[in-house]
């Protein structure tokens, strides 16, 4: 088919194997007559310029090659449409964006960022979490108690030695009630799921966790929807997002707070949405040149 109808969903080797959204989206796109393909983001011989649009999907593991990944996003955007756009990929891959959201009045999990060379100050009470500012799927994260300050400091030192900025957050005591993931397509709410806590162990940096345990459908409250919409409205530049996921949890005082804003390669949990794949296809078809 012509370049005017080719659409690439950028993925990875692990994405091809494990991304359950990918076949659903490819099927929906192809049913509309689009030449939809799944392409490895780092494939040296794939011609992105032949695509009318490229949608970032399961480019898992990008955080281990971030400079290369960001350069790839810039290059693709230079030859075709990229969703979400490269500048937003750069902004959202570093969780220091949480500080920007908080500065714009969005309730987020309180977060202290500790860059290499800065003093390490750990919470004086309660459990807490340490993780790198650039990460995905809870990789490189661990939960600590007050008697494990030395171990937590060693974790931060290891992150600094690798050139990473560390994040320190309180461990929310009500996280067992479930983390809610609200999916938006084209700026409008689509569907939501609830999932169990990931950091169930204490003091262990485990990179082989199940990222979305106990997944079930969820009907968000009006308060949760308002928070998610406020978080997206606070994204700089009002970018007109193709897809977005806002992860929300309950703070200790019972109010919802944003845990993460997933704008790069979020799992969209399309299996939990009757109309999600069709809506996704509508948007891609509208945006493709």
Automatic annotation (TrEMBL):
<dbReference type="InterPro" id="IPR013815">
    <property type="entry name" value="ATP_grasp_subdomain_1"/>
</dbReference>
<dbReference type="InterPro" id="IPR053191">
    <property type="entry name" value="DcsG_Biosynth_Enzyme"/>
</dbReference>
<dbReference type="GO" id="GO:0005524">
    <property type="term" value="F:ATP binding"/>
</dbReference>
<protein>
    <recommendedName>
        <fullName>ATP-grasp domain-containing protein</fullName>
    </recommendedName>
</protein>
């Amino acid at each position: 088919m012509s370049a005017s109808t080719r659409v690439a969903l950028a993925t990875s080797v692990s994405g091809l194997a494990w991304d359950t959204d990918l076949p659903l989206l490819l099927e929906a796109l192809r049913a509309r007559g689009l030449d939809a393909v799944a392409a490895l983001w780092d494939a040296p011989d794939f011609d992105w310029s032949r695509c009318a649009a490229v949608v970032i999907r399961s480019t898992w593991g990008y955080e281990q090659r971030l400079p290369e990944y960001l350069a790839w996003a810039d290059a693709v955007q230079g030859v075709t449409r990229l969703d979400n756009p490269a500048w937003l990929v750069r902004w959202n891959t570093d969780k220091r964006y949480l500080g920007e959201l908080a500065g714009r009045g969005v309730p987020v999990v309180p977060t202290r960022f500790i860059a290499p060379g800065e003093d390490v100050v750990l919470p004086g009470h309660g459990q807490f979490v340490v993780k790198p500012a650039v990460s995905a799927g809870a990789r490189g994260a661990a939960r600590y108690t007050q008697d494990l300050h030395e171990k937590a400091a060693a974790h931060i030192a290891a992150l600094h030695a690798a050139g990473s900025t560390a994040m320190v957050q309180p461990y929310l005591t009500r996280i067992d009630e479930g983390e809610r993931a609200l999916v938006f397509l084209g700026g409008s709410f689509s569907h939501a799921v609830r999932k169990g806590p990931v950091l169930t162990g204490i003091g262990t940096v485990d990179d082989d966790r199940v990222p979305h345990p106990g997944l079930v459908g969820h009907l968000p409250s009006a308060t949760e929807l308002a928070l998610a919409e406020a978080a997206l409205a606070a994204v700089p530049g009002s970018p007109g997002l193709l897809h977005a996921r806002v992860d929300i949890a309950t703070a200790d005082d019972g109010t919802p707070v944003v845990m993460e804003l997933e704008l790069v390669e979020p799992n969209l949990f399309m299996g939990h949405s009757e109309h999600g794949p069709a809506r996704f296809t509508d948007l891609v078809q509208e945006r493709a040149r």
